[in-house]
Design brief:
The protein has helices at 9-25, 43-51, 103-113, and strands at residues 4-7, 33-39, 57-65, 78-81, 91-99, 119-127, 140-144, 150-151, 167-169. The chain is an alpha/beta fold. Strands 4-3-2-5-6-7 form a 6-stranded mixed sheet, with helices on both faces. The protein binds inosinic acid and magnesium ion. Inosinic acid is lined by residues 41, 66, 73, 96-105, 149-151, 155.
Length: 174
């Protein structure tokens, strides 16, 4: 089954370039910005966002699991892979694929803030505000979407579809 297209490659590319400029403008031109991508879903977004970035930029990866493999998270978040480097004194941006209930990001923001970065912000490609359980702060959002289950461009359903170059809707399929 081919998921119904929601955002094409061209749409994603244009929005991500605009987002990179928007983010960069909020920091001094020569300030190194450290992107922390949340595995696995955010790796494709990170790759495009980072290449659209001007000025000094570095990245690191963290992995969390929210238990369960279906279309809803259990709400219990666990750290699966930690960062390689310290965040102390850095301008850090968490890069995430999608904010749904907000539980994952809220957990990540808490543990990363405790590492004393100079600043901590969050960039999400997608947001489903109608599903929010925690009012988590997300400074940069690519697209706001309805309560649909989306895949592609890094996002999966049971580890499938991450390789789709576009974002599609999987509602009612599987
Ligand atoms: P939250 O903790 O409920 O905000 O869930 C965030 C995580 O759930 C994301 O990082 C995704 O891994 C997953 N997720 C939420 N909605 C979707 C979706 O529509 N497609 C694929 N994964 C999703
Ligand atoms: Mg994820």
């Amino acid at each position: 089954m081919r998921p119904d297209p929601l955002f094409s490659e061209a749409t994603l590319s244009a929005r991500i370039s605009a987002l990179a400029s928007e983010i960069r403008r909020d920091y001094a031109a020569d300030a190194p910005v450290h992107l922390v991508a949340v595995l696995k879903g955010a790796f494709v977004f990170l790759a495009d966002l980072m290449r659209a970035f001007e000025g000094p930029v570095t990245c690191d990866f963290i992995a969390v699991s929210s238990y369960g493999s279906g279309k809803t998270s259990s709400g219990e978040v666990r750290l699966m892979k930690d960062l390689d480097r310290s965040l102390e004194g850095r301008d850090v941006i968490i890069v995430e694929d999608i904010v749904d209930t907000g539980l994952t990001l809220s957990y990540l923001q808490d543990i990363l803030r405790a590492r004393e970065p100079k600043s901590l912000r969050t960039a999400c490609l997608l947001s489903k505000p109608s599903r929010r359980k925690i009012d988590v702060q997300v400074e940069y959002i690519g697209f706001t979407i309805e309560d649909r289950f989306v895949v592609g461009y890094g996002l999966d359903f049971d580890e499938r579809y991450r390789n789709l170059p576009y974002i599609g809707v999987l509602d009612g399929q599987g």
